[in-house]
User: What shape does this take?
Amino acid sequence: MIYILRHKDIPVCVFDLDKEVVSASVNSNTADHLPLPLKRILHYPEEFVSENENGRIRLTESGCDLVDFWLNDRTIPAKRRNLDKYTRGKNTLTWMLENHACSLDDCYWIHSIDENLNWDQVKLYGYDQVDILTQESLVGK
Assistant: This one.
């Protein structure tokens, strides 16, 4: 299935994901918005870029591996206690995809190419439960 990686509402990368990233390309106009681990693509094009034309940076197999590693870092660790409580029996990759690979640490997220969503619809910030958790952690509860 084809997915789009976004930084807030800015499309950064398009990739085909089966069980791993099969192919990927980066929008050269928005490549400066890549997540930090993927910026290696820009610094070492001879290793990660197969072609760069028409505003698209097509990635080599090594470049696709970088995208795959970044996605895997967004999944719940398989050794996490109470894993089934979160995933409800789904594998961690499926659960991550259903939740748009969102994180409280940054503003990156993904969606399938046929979903019409924006950052305000998927972001984890600003919800009451997050604000309560933040307040509780600050007061040491």
